[in-house]
Automatic annotation (TrEMBL):
Similarity section: Belongs to the multicopper oxidase family.
Keyword Metal-binding carried by entry: yes
An example Gene Ontology molecular-function term: copper ion binding
Region (Disordered): 468-511
InterPro entries recorded: Cu-oxidase-like_N, Cu-oxidase_C, Cu-oxidase_fam, Cu_oxidase_Cu_BS, Cupredoxin
Name of the protein described by the UniProt record: Multicopper oxidase mco
Keyword list, A-Z: Metal-binding, Oxidoreductase
Biased composition (Basic and acidic residues): 500-511
Length: 511
Protein backbone atom coordinates (compact mmCIF):
# COMPACT_ATOMS: atom_id res chain seq x y z
CA UNK A 1 0.00 0.00 0.00
CA UNK A 2 1.03 3.61 -0.47
CA UNK A 3 1.96 4.30 3.13
CA UNK A 4 5.30 5.31 4.73
CA UNK A 5 7.99 2.65 5.24
CA UNK A 6 8.89 4.06 8.67
CA UNK A 7 7.36 4.45 12.11
CA UNK A 8 4.21 2.41 12.68
CA UNK A 9 3.21 2.01 9.03
CA UNK A 10 4.80 -0.33 6.42
CA UNK A 11 7.93 -0.75 8.50
CA UNK A 12 9.23 -4.32 8.32
CA UNK A 13 12.28 -3.71 10.52
CA UNK A 14 10.76 -3.69 14.04
CA UNK A 15 9.65 -7.04 15.41
CA UNK A 16 7.33 -8.13 18.17
CA UNK A 17 8.56 -10.75 20.60
CA UNK A 18 6.22 -13.59 21.63
CA UNK A 19 3.86 -12.17 24.21
CA UNK A 20 4.48 -8.62 23.06
CA UNK A 21 2.37 -6.29 20.96
CA UNK A 22 2.73 -3.40 18.57
CA UNK A 23 0.11 -1.02 17.19
CA UNK A 24 0.28 -0.17 13.49
CA UNK A 25 -1.38 2.96 12.12
CA UNK A 26 -2.04 3.48 8.42
CA UNK A 27 -3.14 6.87 7.15
CA UNK A 28 -4.84 6.11 3.83
CA UNK A 29 -4.53 9.11 1.54
CA UNK A 30 -7.84 10.30 -0.01
CA UNK A 31 -6.67 9.50 -3.54
CA UNK A 32 -5.18 6.10 -2.71
CA UNK A 33 -6.07 3.47 -5.34
CA UNK A 34 -9.13 1.46 -4.36
CA UNK A 35 -8.27 -2.21 -4.47
CA UNK A 36 -7.25 -5.50 -2.89
CA UNK A 37 -4.30 -5.56 -0.50
CA UNK A 38 -3.16 -7.79 2.36
CA UNK A 39 -0.95 -8.11 5.41
CA UNK A 40 1.37 -10.79 6.79
CA UNK A 41 4.31 -11.20 9.20
CA UNK A 42 7.70 -10.17 7.85
CA UNK A 43 10.23 -11.26 10.46
CA UNK A 44 13.40 -11.92 8.46
CA UNK A 45 14.32 -15.60 8.63
CA UNK A 46 10.80 -16.67 9.65
CA UNK A 47 8.60 -15.47 6.78
CA UNK A 48 8.31 -18.99 5.36
CA UNK A 49 7.40 -20.42 8.75
CA UNK A 50 4.70 -17.85 9.39
CA UNK A 51 3.13 -17.84 5.92
CA UNK A 52 3.07 -21.64 5.82
CA UNK A 53 1.33 -21.36 9.17
CA UNK A 54 -1.42 -19.38 7.39
CA UNK A 55 -0.70 -16.06 9.08
CA UNK A 56 -2.23 -13.60 6.61
CA UNK A 57 -5.26 -11.39 6.17
CA UNK A 58 -7.00 -9.18 3.60
CA UNK A 59 -7.17 -5.38 3.52
CA UNK A 60 -9.57 -3.72 1.09
CA UNK A 61 -9.44 -0.05 0.13
CA UNK A 62 -13.05 0.52 -0.86
CA UNK A 63 -14.09 2.31 -4.02
CA UNK A 64 -15.28 5.90 -3.93
CA UNK A 65 -18.98 5.95 -4.90
CA UNK A 66 -18.48 8.66 -7.51
CA UNK A 67 -15.92 6.53 -9.36
CA UNK A 68 -17.57 3.15 -8.91
CA UNK A 69 -19.27 1.64 -12.00
CA UNK A 70 -22.84 0.53 -11.35
CA UNK A 71 -22.06 -2.89 -12.82
CA UNK A 72 -19.36 -3.54 -10.21
CA UNK A 73 -21.52 -2.16 -7.41
CA UNK A 74 -24.22 -4.68 -8.34
CA UNK A 75 -21.91 -7.71 -8.13
CA UNK A 76 -21.39 -9.88 -5.08
CA UNK A 77 -17.88 -8.99 -3.88
CA UNK A 78 -15.98 -11.91 -2.33
CA UNK A 79 -12.49 -12.16 -0.82
CA UNK A 80 -10.61 -15.34 -1.79
CA UNK A 81 -7.42 -15.83 0.25
CA UNK A 82 -5.40 -18.68 -1.26
CA UNK A 83 -3.23 -20.66 1.16
CA UNK A 84 -1.72 -24.12 0.92
CA UNK A 85 -0.59 -26.92 3.21
CA UNK A 86 1.70 -29.86 2.53
CA UNK A 87 1.69 -32.21 5.49
CA UNK A 88 4.23 -34.99 4.90
CA UNK A 89 6.63 -36.52 2.37
CA UNK A 90 6.63 -33.20 0.55
CA UNK A 91 8.28 -32.94 -2.86
CA UNK A 92 9.78 -29.60 -1.78
CA UNK A 93 11.06 -29.26 1.79
CA UNK A 94 10.13 -25.58 2.03
CA UNK A 95 6.44 -26.51 1.52
CA UNK A 96 6.38 -29.07 4.35
CA UNK A 97 4.27 -27.60 7.16
CA UNK A 98 6.19 -29.09 10.07
CA UNK A 99 9.61 -28.39 8.61
CA UNK A 100 8.57 -24.86 7.64
CA UNK A 101 7.38 -24.09 11.15
CA UNK A 102 10.56 -25.56 12.60
CA UNK A 103 12.50 -23.63 9.94
CA UNK A 104 14.21 -26.79 8.70
CA UNK A 105 14.27 -25.49 5.14
CA UNK A 106 17.11 -23.16 6.18
CA UNK A 107 20.02 -23.68 3.79
CA UNK A 108 22.63 -23.16 6.50
CA UNK A 109 20.97 -25.77 8.71
CA UNK A 110 20.98 -28.39 5.95
CA UNK A 111 24.73 -27.97 5.48
CA UNK A 112 25.61 -29.00 9.01
CA UNK A 113 24.62 -31.76 11.38
CA UNK A 114 25.40 -29.45 14.29
CA UNK A 115 23.75 -26.06 13.73
CA UNK A 116 25.36 -23.17 15.56
CA UNK A 117 23.63 -21.20 18.31
CA UNK A 118 22.28 -18.56 15.92
CA UNK A 119 20.61 -21.22 13.81
CA UNK A 120 19.11 -22.85 16.89
CA UNK A 121 17.39 -19.56 17.73
CA UNK A 122 15.43 -19.80 14.48
CA UNK A 123 14.22 -23.38 15.01
CA UNK A 124 10.75 -23.72 16.53
CA UNK A 125 10.05 -27.29 17.77
CA UNK A 126 6.61 -28.69 16.94
CA UNK A 127 4.62 -31.74 17.86
CA UNK A 128 2.51 -31.78 14.69
CA UNK A 129 0.52 -34.98 14.31
CA UNK A 130 -1.44 -35.97 11.20
CA UNK A 131 -4.77 -37.51 12.17
CA UNK A 132 -6.69 -39.44 9.54
CA UNK A 133 -10.47 -39.09 9.62
CA UNK A 134 -13.40 -39.13 7.21
CA UNK A 135 -13.07 -35.51 6.19
CA UNK A 136 -13.44 -34.92 2.47
CA UNK A 137 -9.88 -33.69 1.99
CA UNK A 138 -7.74 -35.68 -0.47
CA UNK A 139 -4.54 -36.18 1.47
CA UNK A 140 -3.76 -39.32 -0.51
CA UNK A 141 -1.01 -37.32 -2.26
CA UNK A 142 0.68 -35.61 0.62
CA UNK A 143 3.79 -34.74 -1.37
CA UNK A 144 2.25 -31.60 -2.87
CA UNK A 145 0.53 -28.54 -1.36
CA UNK A 146 -3.24 -28.72 -0.95
CA UNK A 147 -4.95 -25.37 -1.54
CA UNK A 148 -7.43 -23.87 0.90
CA UNK A 149 -9.63 -20.86 0.13
CA UNK A 150 -10.41 -18.68 3.15
CA UNK A 151 -9.32 -21.63 5.28
CA UNK A 152 -11.76 -24.04 3.59
CA UNK A 153 -11.07 -27.00 1.36
CA UNK A 154 -12.99 -26.84 -1.93
CA UNK A 155 -15.75 -24.40 -0.90
CA UNK A 156 -18.83 -23.99 -3.11
CA UNK A 157 -19.66 -20.79 -4.98
CA UNK A 158 -23.29 -20.42 -6.11
CA UNK A 159 -23.99 -18.52 -9.32
CA UNK A 160 -26.99 -17.98 -11.57
CA UNK A 161 -26.49 -18.44 -15.30
CA UNK A 162 -25.11 -15.22 -16.74
CA UNK A 163 -24.44 -13.67 -13.33
CA UNK A 164 -21.11 -11.96 -12.66
CA UNK A 165 -19.45 -12.14 -9.26
CA UNK A 166 -16.30 -10.29 -8.24
CA UNK A 167 -13.63 -12.52 -6.69
CA UNK A 168 -10.68 -10.84 -4.99
CA UNK A 169 -7.90 -13.43 -5.09
CA UNK A 170 -4.92 -13.03 -2.76
CA UNK A 171 -2.04 -15.46 -3.20
CA UNK A 172 -0.92 -15.87 0.40
CA UNK A 173 0.85 -19.16 -0.40
CA UNK A 174 4.41 -18.96 0.87
CA UNK A 175 6.39 -20.29 -2.07
CA UNK A 176 4.19 -21.03 -5.07
CA UNK A 177 2.74 -19.24 -8.08
CA UNK A 178 -0.99 -19.90 -8.60
CA UNK A 179 -2.27 -20.37 -12.17
CA UNK A 180 -6.08 -20.09 -12.14
CA UNK A 181 -8.38 -21.58 -14.78
CA UNK A 182 -11.96 -22.84 -15.01
CA UNK A 183 -12.61 -26.50 -15.77
CA UNK A 184 -12.74 -27.40 -19.44
CA UNK A 185 -16.18 -27.28 -21.02
CA UNK A 186 -17.61 -25.29 -18.12
CA UNK A 187 -18.75 -22.32 -20.20
CA UNK A 188 -17.35 -20.10 -17.44
CA UNK A 189 -15.36 -16.97 -18.25
CA UNK A 190 -12.77 -15.06 -16.26
CA UNK A 191 -12.44 -11.30 -16.75
CA UNK A 192 -9.58 -9.61 -14.89
CA UNK A 193 -10.56 -6.24 -13.42
CA UNK A 194 -7.37 -5.41 -11.52
CA UNK A 195 -3.97 -6.79 -10.57
CA UNK A 196 -2.24 -5.98 -7.28
CA UNK A 197 -4.95 -3.47 -6.40
CA UNK A 198 -4.72 -1.39 -9.60
CA UNK A 199 -7.61 -1.46 -12.08
CA UNK A 200 -7.04 -2.15 -15.74
CA UNK A 201 -8.47 0.41 -18.17
CA UNK A 202 -11.22 -2.09 -18.99
CA UNK A 203 -11.93 -5.75 -18.12
CA UNK A 204 -9.51 -8.19 -19.74
CA UNK A 205 -10.58 -11.74 -20.64
CA UNK A 206 -8.06 -14.41 -19.60
CA UNK A 207 -7.97 -18.19 -20.00
CA UNK A 208 -5.35 -18.46 -17.26
CA UNK A 209 -4.59 -15.93 -14.51
CA UNK A 210 -1.06 -16.10 -13.10
CA UNK A 211 -0.78 -14.82 -9.53
CA UNK A 212 2.67 -14.93 -7.91
CA UNK A 213 3.09 -15.23 -4.14
CA UNK A 214 2.07 -11.87 -2.70
CA UNK A 215 0.11 -10.95 -5.84
CA UNK A 216 -3.60 -10.21 -6.10
CA UNK A 217 -6.13 -10.47 -8.91
CA UNK A 218 -9.66 -9.03 -8.95
CA UNK A 219 -11.66 -11.25 -11.28
CA UNK A 220 -15.24 -11.17 -12.55
CA UNK A 221 -16.48 -14.71 -13.13
CA UNK A 222 -19.56 -15.66 -15.18
CA UNK A 223 -20.87 -19.07 -16.24
CA UNK A 224 -23.13 -19.44 -19.26
CA UNK A 225 -24.37 -22.98 -18.58
CA UNK A 226 -26.18 -24.76 -15.74
CA UNK A 227 -24.18 -27.39 -13.91
CA UNK A 228 -21.35 -28.01 -11.47
CA UNK A 229 -17.89 -26.93 -12.53
CA UNK A 230 -14.62 -26.02 -10.88
CA UNK A 231 -12.20 -23.19 -10.51
CA UNK A 232 -8.79 -24.85 -10.60
CA UNK A 233 -5.08 -24.30 -10.33
CA UNK A 234 -3.33 -25.58 -13.44
CA UNK A 235 0.46 -26.02 -13.57
CA UNK A 236 0.54 -26.98 -17.24
CA UNK A 237 3.92 -27.89 -18.71
CA UNK A 238 3.14 -25.55 -21.62
CA UNK A 239 4.07 -22.70 -19.25
CA UNK A 240 7.40 -24.20 -18.13
CA UNK A 241 9.32 -21.59 -20.11
CA UNK A 242 7.43 -18.82 -18.32
CA UNK A 243 7.43 -20.12 -14.75
CA UNK A 244 9.82 -23.07 -14.44
CA UNK A 245 9.21 -26.76 -14.00
CA UNK A 246 5.88 -28.16 -12.82
CA UNK A 247 5.81 -28.37 -9.00
CA UNK A 248 8.86 -26.09 -8.71
CA UNK A 249 7.40 -23.05 -6.94
CA UNK A 250 4.11 -23.63 -8.80
CA UNK A 251 0.86 -24.72 -7.15
CA UNK A 252 0.06 -28.23 -8.44
CA UNK A 253 -3.05 -28.76 -10.57
CA UNK A 254 -6.17 -29.28 -8.44
CA UNK A 255 -9.75 -28.01 -8.05
CA UNK A 256 -10.00 -25.23 -5.46
CA UNK A 257 -13.60 -23.92 -5.71
CA UNK A 258 -16.76 -25.78 -6.78
CA UNK A 259 -18.96 -23.65 -9.05
CA UNK A 260 -22.66 -24.50 -8.69
CA UNK A 261 -24.52 -22.79 -11.54
CA UNK A 262 -28.33 -22.68 -11.52
CA UNK A 263 -31.02 -21.07 -13.64
CA UNK A 264 -32.03 -17.43 -13.24
CA UNK A 265 -34.61 -16.97 -10.51
CA UNK A 266 -38.22 -16.80 -11.66
CA UNK A 267 -39.43 -13.17 -11.50
CA UNK A 268 -43.06 -14.39 -11.23
CA UNK A 269 -42.32 -16.15 -7.96
CA UNK A 270 -43.23 -13.76 -5.14
CA UNK A 271 -40.69 -15.44 -2.86
CA UNK A 272 -37.86 -14.82 -5.28
CA UNK A 273 -36.48 -11.70 -6.94
CA UNK A 274 -35.22 -11.28 -10.45
CA UNK A 275 -31.50 -10.78 -10.96
CA UNK A 276 -30.87 -7.18 -11.90
CA UNK A 277 -29.68 -6.58 -15.44
CA UNK A 278 -26.62 -4.92 -13.93
CA UNK A 279 -25.55 -8.31 -12.59
CA UNK A 280 -25.39 -9.58 -16.15
CA UNK A 281 -22.84 -7.28 -17.70
CA UNK A 282 -19.39 -5.79 -17.23
CA UNK A 283 -18.53 -2.10 -17.19
CA UNK A 284 -17.01 -0.73 -20.39
CA UNK A 285 -14.37 1.15 -18.38
CA UNK A 286 -12.89 0.90 -14.89
CA UNK A 287 -11.84 3.51 -12.29
CA UNK A 288 -8.74 5.51 -13.19
CA UNK A 289 -5.45 5.61 -11.33
CA UNK A 290 -4.77 8.61 -9.07
CA UNK A 291 -2.91 11.53 -10.63
CA UNK A 292 0.26 10.88 -8.63
CA UNK A 293 0.60 7.51 -10.43
CA UNK A 294 1.45 9.23 -13.69
CA UNK A 295 2.06 7.22 -16.83
CA UNK A 296 5.78 6.56 -17.25
CA UNK A 297 5.81 5.45 -20.88
CA UNK A 298 5.07 8.74 -22.60
CA UNK A 299 4.35 8.81 -26.34
CA UNK A 300 6.54 8.23 -29.40
CA UNK A 301 6.72 12.01 -29.72
CA UNK A 302 7.42 12.67 -26.03
CA UNK A 303 9.41 10.06 -24.14
CA UNK A 304 10.29 10.73 -20.49
CA UNK A 305 13.91 11.64 -19.88
CA UNK A 306 15.39 9.60 -17.03
CA UNK A 307 18.69 10.62 -15.50
CA UNK A 308 21.42 7.96 -15.48
CA UNK A 309 21.64 8.36 -11.71
CA UNK A 310 18.00 7.21 -11.51
CA UNK A 311 18.61 3.91 -13.30
CA UNK A 312 19.29 0.72 -11.36
CA UNK A 313 19.97 -2.94 -12.14
CA UNK A 314 18.31 -5.37 -9.73
CA UNK A 315 19.38 -8.98 -10.31
CA UNK A 316 18.02 -12.01 -8.48
CA UNK A 317 21.20 -14.06 -8.08
CA UNK A 318 21.61 -17.77 -7.31
CA UNK A 319 25.08 -19.22 -6.69
CA UNK A 320 26.95 -21.89 -4.77
CA UNK A 321 28.59 -21.07 -1.45
CA UNK A 322 28.53 -24.14 0.80
CA UNK A 323 25.19 -24.83 -0.82
CA UNK A 324 22.65 -22.98 -2.94
CA UNK A 325 22.73 -19.29 -2.03
CA UNK A 326 20.13 -16.63 -2.81
CA UNK A 327 20.74 -12.90 -3.02
CA UNK A 328 20.40 -9.71 -5.04
CA UNK A 329 23.24 -8.52 -7.25
CA UNK A 330 25.27 -11.49 -5.99
CA UNK A 331 25.02 -10.37 -2.36
CA UNK A 332 22.84 -11.64 0.48
CA UNK A 333 20.71 -9.18 2.44
CA UNK A 334 22.55 -7.01 4.94
CA UNK A 335 20.00 -4.99 6.90
CA UNK A 336 22.77 -2.60 7.96
CA UNK A 337 23.45 -1.62 4.34
CA UNK A 338 21.55 0.63 1.96
CA UNK A 339 22.11 -0.66 -1.56
CA UNK A 340 20.65 2.24 -3.53
CA UNK A 341 19.20 5.70 -2.90
CA UNK A 342 16.62 7.62 -4.90
CA UNK A 343 15.19 11.15 -4.60
CA UNK A 344 11.48 11.89 -4.38
CA UNK A 345 9.59 13.06 -7.47
CA UNK A 346 12.22 11.85 -9.95
CA UNK A 347 11.28 8.96 -12.23
CA UNK A 348 13.17 5.72 -11.66
CA UNK A 349 13.97 3.05 -14.24
CA UNK A 350 14.98 -0.39 -12.96
CA UNK A 351 16.07 -3.47 -14.88
CA UNK A 352 14.89 -6.63 -13.10
CA UNK A 353 16.57 -9.90 -14.08
CA UNK A 354 17.44 -13.41 -12.86
CA UNK A 355 20.86 -15.05 -13.10
CA UNK A 356 21.97 -18.49 -12.00
CA UNK A 357 25.75 -18.56 -11.52
CA UNK A 358 25.96 -22.30 -10.91
CA UNK A 359 27.92 -24.34 -13.43
CA UNK A 360 24.92 -26.48 -14.29
CA UNK A 361 23.02 -23.38 -15.37
CA UNK A 362 24.38 -23.82 -18.90
CA UNK A 363 22.04 -26.77 -19.29
CA UNK A 364 18.53 -26.22 -20.58
CA UNK A 365 16.02 -28.37 -18.74
CA UNK A 366 12.77 -26.77 -19.92
CA UNK A 367 11.40 -30.06 -21.19
CA UNK A 368 8.45 -30.32 -23.51
CA UNK A 369 5.63 -32.81 -23.10
CA UNK A 370 7.32 -35.30 -25.45
CA UNK A 371 10.51 -35.52 -23.36
CA UNK A 372 11.58 -39.07 -22.60
CA UNK A 373 11.54 -40.47 -19.09
CA UNK A 374 15.35 -40.65 -19.25
CA UNK A 375 15.51 -36.95 -20.09
CA UNK A 376 13.20 -36.18 -17.21
CA UNK A 377 15.27 -38.20 -14.73
CA UNK A 378 18.44 -36.48 -15.89
CA UNK A 379 16.73 -33.11 -15.68
CA UNK A 380 15.57 -33.81 -12.15
CA UNK A 381 19.16 -34.54 -11.11
CA UNK A 382 20.50 -31.41 -12.78
CA UNK A 383 20.83 -28.53 -10.35
CA UNK A 384 19.82 -26.16 -13.14
CA UNK A 385 16.42 -27.80 -13.12
CA UNK A 386 15.94 -26.01 -9.84
CA UNK A 387 15.95 -22.77 -11.81
CA UNK A 388 12.78 -21.08 -10.68
CA UNK A 389 10.53 -18.06 -10.88
CA UNK A 390 11.43 -15.14 -8.62
CA UNK A 391 8.52 -12.74 -7.96
CA UNK A 392 9.92 -9.20 -7.60
CA UNK A 393 8.12 -7.13 -4.96
CA UNK A 394 8.73 -3.60 -3.76
CA UNK A 395 7.05 -2.14 -0.69
CA UNK A 396 5.15 1.17 -0.49
CA UNK A 397 4.69 1.64 -4.24
CA UNK A 398 3.46 0.23 -7.51
CA UNK A 399 5.54 0.29 -10.67
CA UNK A 400 4.71 0.29 -14.37
CA UNK A 401 6.10 -2.32 -16.75
CA UNK A 402 7.90 -0.26 -19.39
CA UNK A 403 9.68 -2.98 -21.40
CA UNK A 404 10.63 -6.66 -21.31
CA UNK A 405 12.83 -9.15 -23.13
CA UNK A 406 11.15 -11.09 -25.91
CA UNK A 407 11.56 -14.41 -24.07
CA UNK A 408 10.11 -13.19 -20.77
CA UNK A 409 6.41 -13.43 -21.67
CA UNK A 410 6.02 -13.40 -25.47
CA UNK A 411 2.27 -14.09 -25.44
CA UNK A 412 1.30 -11.76 -22.60
CA UNK A 413 0.09 -14.62 -20.40
CA UNK A 414 1.55 -13.19 -17.18
CA UNK A 415 1.68 -9.44 -17.86
CA UNK A 416 1.92 -6.78 -20.56
CA UNK A 417 3.92 -3.60 -21.04
CA UNK A 418 1.99 -0.70 -19.53
CA UNK A 419 0.48 -2.65 -16.63
CA UNK A 420 0.96 -1.53 -13.03
CA UNK A 421 2.01 -4.09 -10.42
CA UNK A 422 3.73 -4.38 -7.08
CA UNK A 423 4.63 -8.06 -7.47
CA UNK A 424 5.98 -9.50 -10.72
CA UNK A 425 7.00 -13.12 -11.50
CA UNK A 426 10.28 -13.32 -13.44
CA UNK A 427 11.76 -16.60 -14.64
CA UNK A 428 13.89 -15.85 -17.68
CA UNK A 429 14.85 -12.75 -19.58
CA UNK A 430 14.26 -9.46 -17.84
CA UNK A 431 11.70 -6.74 -17.20
CA UNK A 432 12.13 -2.97 -17.13
CA UNK A 433 9.97 -1.06 -14.66
CA UNK A 434 9.43 2.64 -13.97
CA UNK A 435 7.97 4.49 -11.01
CA UNK A 436 8.28 7.83 -9.25
CA UNK A 437 9.02 7.83 -5.50
CA UNK A 438 6.74 10.23 -3.63
CA UNK A 439 7.13 12.09 -0.33
CA UNK A 440 5.25 9.46 1.65
CA UNK A 441 7.95 6.92 0.65
CA UNK A 442 10.82 8.71 2.41
CA UNK A 443 12.75 6.10 4.38
CA UNK A 444 14.13 2.62 3.73
CA UNK A 445 12.12 0.50 1.29
CA UNK A 446 12.28 -3.30 1.18
CA UNK A 447 12.63 -4.85 -2.31
CA UNK A 448 12.76 -8.64 -2.45
CA UNK A 449 11.81 -11.96 -3.96
CA UNK A 450 8.37 -13.00 -2.72
CA UNK A 451 9.24 -16.68 -2.54
CA UNK A 452 9.24 -16.80 1.26
CA UNK A 453 12.09 -19.30 1.59
CA UNK A 454 14.20 -17.15 -0.76
CA UNK A 455 13.73 -13.87 1.10
CA UNK A 456 14.49 -15.69 4.35
CA UNK A 457 17.74 -16.85 2.76
CA UNK A 458 18.74 -13.28 1.84
CA UNK A 459 17.19 -12.54 -1.57
CA UNK A 460 16.36 -8.93 -0.72
CA UNK A 461 17.73 -5.39 -0.56
CA UNK A 462 17.06 -2.19 1.33
CA UNK A 463 16.85 0.95 -0.81
CA UNK A 464 16.44 4.48 0.49
CA UNK A 465 14.10 7.27 -0.61
CA UNK A 466 15.18 10.78 0.39
CA UNK A 467 13.82 14.31 0.02
CA UNK A 468 16.64 16.62 -1.06
CA UNK A 469 14.56 19.70 -0.19
CA UNK A 470 14.01 18.74 3.44
CA UNK A 471 17.19 16.63 3.78
CA UNK A 472 15.02 13.86 5.15
CA UNK A 473 15.80 10.21 4.45
CA UNK A 474 13.54 8.63 7.04
CA UNK A 475 16.17 8.30 9.78
CA UNK A 476 14.29 10.75 11.99
CA UNK A 477 11.30 8.44 12.29
CA UNK A 478 13.57 5.48 13.00
CA UNK A 479 15.39 7.38 15.74
CA UNK A 480 12.08 8.42 17.34
CA UNK A 481 10.89 4.84 17.16
CA UNK A 482 14.08 3.49 18.76
CA UNK A 483 13.77 6.11 21.49
CA UNK A 484 10.16 5.18 22.15
CA UNK A 485 11.09 1.51 22.33
CA UNK A 486 13.85 2.26 24.83
CA UNK A 487 11.47 4.30 26.99
CA UNK A 488 8.83 1.58 26.95
CA UNK A 489 11.39 -1.11 27.71
CA UNK A 490 10.07 -3.11 24.75
CA UNK A 491 12.30 -5.22 22.54
CA UNK A 492 11.76 -5.45 18.80
CA UNK A 493 11.70 -9.03 17.33
CA UNK A 494 9.65 -11.97 16.24
CA UNK A 495 5.95 -12.58 16.17
CA UNK A 496 3.42 -13.27 18.85
CA UNK A 497 -0.07 -13.38 17.35
CA UNK A 498 -1.38 -16.53 15.74
CA UNK A 499 -4.65 -15.16 14.38
CA UNK A 500 -5.32 -13.65 11.00
CA UNK A 501 -7.99 -11.23 12.24
CA UNK A 502 -5.98 -8.89 14.47
CA UNK A 503 -4.59 -5.70 13.01
CA UNK A 504 -2.14 -5.35 15.92
CA UNK A 505 0.08 -8.20 14.78
CA UNK A 506 3.69 -9.13 14.51
CA UNK A 507 5.96 -7.38 12.04
CA UNK A 508 3.30 -6.81 9.41
CA UNK A 509 3.91 -6.20 5.75
CA UNK A 510 1.23 -4.07 4.13
CA UNK A 511 0.95 -3.20 0.52
Amino acid sequence: MHVPPVGDADNVMPNVEPGGQRRYTYEIRPDHPAGTFWYHPHTHGNVNSQLNGMMAGALIVVDRPADFPAELAAMDDLIMILQAVCVENCFNMYDDLEEAIENKYSHSRRLSDTPDEDEEEHIWPTDLEIVEDDADIPLNDTSLPTVFVNGQYLPTLDLAVGEYKRLRFINAIANNVAELVTSRGSGCMLEVLAMDGIYFTKPKAKEVIVIPPGGRADVAIMCAEIGEFYLETDSASSRNKLLGLVNQHRVPSQPIVKLKVTKVEDPDDEDESEISAEFMRLPSSLPKRPAYMEDTLGTPQSRPIIEESNKYDFEFSVWMDKGITYGVNHEKLDIASINYSMPVNEMQQWEISVKDYRKAAIWDCDLEDDSTSVERRLAKKSSNCRTMSHPFHMHSTHFQISDMDDITDPDGIMFDVGEWRDTLPIFRGGVQIRFTPREYMVGNIFAHCHIASHVDAGMAQLVNVYDSDTRSNGDEASEEEDSASDEDGDEDESDSSDTEDTKEVQNVEKR
